[in-house]
Amino acid sequence: AQQSSDKERHAIKTGVETYLYEEERTKVARVVDPGARIFSVDGKGKLMMTALSKPAGKVPKGATTRVPRQKIVNIDFFVNGAVVKVETDRMSVEGPMQDVRHAQYVSLLKLNGDWKIVSILMPSIAR
User: Fold this and answer.
1) Using one digit for the tens of pLDDT, what is the confidence trace for 53-72?
2) What is the spatial distance between Cα 84 and Cα 38, in angstroms, rounded to a whole number?
3) Beta bridge partners of 112
4) Which of 12, 81, 86, 102 is most buried, judged by most C-beta within 10 A?
């Protein structure tokens, strides 16, 4: 039972790491369900839903950024569902460089034998 649990945990971790770090979009697409969404809150406190397959926005011209440091800090799974907490240290693209902390909760389901990301809960950034 422990080997099975370790195998599942490894598969979940590998999928999330592929999403976080892989630059080749076709490899990322293999671990993300086509209907996956990012759920967040806009500046007015309203729910925003964005397709995970939507390309990231461009960084404003002249903005200075650095590559975020992302780290998986917790994996919780049971049977065919999982939630992975990822903490991120990143720089603001607005104004002077400043550190901001962020967490995201990546939800996965085991679909047809493969772990797929189905949603990401992205709370507001803490400064």
Assistant:
1) 765 544 444 444 455 678 99
2) 14
3) none
4) 12
